């Protein structure tokens, strides 16, 4: 990429990806800035809301503070503050998952717009242009579907099996 006639050093970051991926007519400060702001909004507000809800849930269920603190101290003492140490925080991961289940960011998920009329085998038709979604909040707080009750916080998982399951911090970015 050139800036004022001089070649710039190739970098591997978000802005470079956006510039390289944009059509030439959109390789300008305004368009790239708008994309960065949109990505930041999506990343920051969801993380902030999830963290805030977890803190509210922790304040409401203070019996989890001790076990979580003990796990964090033990793991960080042994491994420091690293990606590896974050993946070993099984109880914290379990608490965050339960907090997200009980206090999700949105009530609906996986929304899709029908491009053409669609008729199910039972005769129900979704007309073209209509949007359908999954009632995720309703599913996560359904008293019938949750054997322990919709607001029951399941015990903190600390087993090796819990580590085998998908964790929030399994991202290659971290």
UniProtKB/TrEMBL annotation:
Gene3D superfamilies: Cytochrome P450. Its cofactor is heme. It comes from Candolleomyces eurysporus. Keywords: Iron, Metal-binding, Oxidoreductase. Pfam families: p450. The keyword Oxidoreductase applies. This is Cytochrome P450. It comes from the Eukaryota. One of its GO terms (molecular function) is oxidoreductase activity, acting on paired donors, with incorporation or reduction of molecular oxygen. Belongs to the cytochrome P450 family. The keyword Iron applies.
């Amino acid at each position: 990429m050139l800036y004022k006639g001089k070649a710039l050093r190739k970098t591997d970051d978000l802005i470079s990806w956006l510039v390289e991926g944009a059509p030439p007519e959109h390789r300008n400060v305004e368009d790239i800035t708008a994309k960065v702001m949109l990505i930041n909004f999506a990343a920051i507000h969801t993380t902030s809301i999830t963290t805030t809800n977890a803190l509210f849930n922790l304040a409401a269920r203070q019996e989890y503070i001790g076990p979580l603190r003990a796990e964090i101290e033990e793991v960080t003492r042994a491994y420091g503050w690293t990606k590896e140490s974050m993946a070993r925080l099984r109880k914290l991961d379990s608490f965050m998952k339960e907090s997200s289940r009980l206090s999700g960011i949105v009530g609906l998920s996986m929304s899709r717009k029908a491009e053409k009329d669609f008729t199910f085998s039972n005769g129900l038709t979704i007309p073209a242009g209509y949007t359908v979604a999954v009632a995720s909040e309703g599913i996560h707080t359904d008293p019938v579907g949750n054997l322990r009750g919709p607001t029951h916080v399941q015990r903190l998982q600390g087993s090796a099996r819990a580590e085998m399951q998908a964790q929030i911090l399994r991202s290659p970015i971290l």
